Amino acid sequence: MSLPSTLRRHRLAFVTGLAAFAIAAVGLWPAERGFSLTFFDVGQGDGMHLRSESFDLIVDGGPSPRFVHQVASRLPATDRTLELVVLTHPDFDHLRGLLSLFD
Fold first, then answer.
1. Spatial distance between the Cα atoms of 74 and 3, rounded to a whole number of angstroms
2. Distance CA 30, CA 83 (A)
3. How far is CA 94 from CA 32, 49, 67, 80, in A?
4. CA 28/CA 33 separation, integer angstroms
5. Which residue in 7, 24, 30, 65 has its CB near the most CB atoms, within 10 A?
């Protein structure tokens, strides 16, 4: 059974905040203050990209390989690396888009 959309988004926001806190706690978060947060429409699952000037964090990837193209459109051509990829749980609707990142 799938969780309601608002509950999934709240869970995603919580996991994102937790991941950002963990990164900051170990000193990996860059000193830049500006960042962007993008939630992707990936169908049934979730997909999120948090970007600062030199740091990219992906949380979940949705059920479709199109997630790769959505993330690529947010990355500059000179920086195609992701510093951290988080999978909240291994259900197919969160995992498949992440698997296509490695192709």
1. 28
2. 11
3. 29, 13, 11, 21
4. 14
5. 65
Q: Up-side HSE of residue 23: CA atoms within 13 Å toward CB?
A: 20
- Contact between 38 and 56 under an 8 Å Cβ cutoff? The reply is no
Q: Which residue has the tokens 């969160």?
A: 94
Q: Which among 61, 72, 69 has a CA at the least distance from the CA of 94?
A: 61
CA distances in angstroms from 27 to 23, 30, 79, 81, listed in the order given: 6, 8, 21, 19
Tokens of 18: 């937790």
pLDDT tens figures, 14-56: 777 777 766 665 565 555 567 788 888 777 767 888 888 778 8
pTM, entire model: 0.64
